[in-house]
UniProtKB/TrEMBL annotation:
Residues 29-48 bind DNA. Pfam families: TetR_C_13 (PF16925), TetR_N (PF00440). It comes from the Bacteria. Residues 6-66 form the HTH tetR-type domain. Gene3D superfamilies: Homeodomain-like, Tetracycline Repressor, domain 2. This is TetR/AcrR family transcriptional regulator. The lineage of its organism: Bacteria, Bacillati, Actinomycetota, Actinomycetes, Streptosporangiales.
């Protein structure tokens, strides 16, 4: 249609996602979102409905971008849950070290701000965290340890993952982050060894 501004919705989502990732939900003003996407308020509302709806789409965009990388890492070592967790942390640390994306993790950032999220976005963040935990739990199935132990280990791995994201936002050196991940992998290995001996 003549005179109508055209834009790529996926590109706009990626740009908005970076704003939420860098600033968090509360500090991601419509002006900041508009500046990043090149869209006016009318176009933002017309395309996404509201800031909350845009935020939800950005969360899902983040998961669709990074989730497959985690899935691939966790599935790459069937029958070897410790190696699967090591591969998972390799992917986490590679994303954290990537200078082309903001520090931390959009899910961790959003979880920290969950009490101020509107509508069902707080619950959606919890669903996404549960999805991460289920991914890790599935990778631990190669162990004969008690299911309760595997449940606790999956939660532990996700807790470490989220902690790495928070530490990276505080400019913790890569060597220290890698040390945390190594210790977490050793904890998983030791726990599984004790549980199956």
């Amino acid at each position: 249609m003549s005179g109508r501004k055209q834009f790529d919705v996926d590109t706009a989502l990626d740009q908005a996602m970076r704003v939420f990732w860098q600033r968090g939900y509360a500090e991601a003003s419509l002006d900041a979102l508009g500046a990043a996407t090149g869209l006016g308020r009318g176009s933002l509302y017309g395309t996404f409905g509201s800031k909350d709806a845009l935020f939800r789409r950005c969360l899902d965009r983040y998961v669709s971008t990074y989730g497959p990388r985690f899935d691939q890492a966790l599935a790459a070592h069937p029958g070897d849950p410790v190696r699967a967790v090591e591969a998972f942390f390799d992917v986490v640390l590679a994303r954290i070290a990537d200078p082309s994306v903001p520090a931390g993790c959009l899910i961790a950032q959003s979880a920290a701000q969950a009490p101020m999220l509107k509508g069902d976005n707080g619950a959606h963040v919890r669903v996404l965290l549960d999805k991460q935990r289920r991914r890790v739990r599935a990778a631990l199935e190669g162990s004969s340890a008690d299911p309760d132990v595997l449940d606790e280990l999956a939660t532990f791995v996700i807790a470490v993952n989220q902690s790495l994201a928070v530490l990276s936002r505080a400019s913790t050196p890569d060597t220290e982050l890698r040390g945390v991940a190594r210790l977490a992998c050793r904890t998983v290995a030791d726990t599984l060894a004790r549980a199956t001996s």
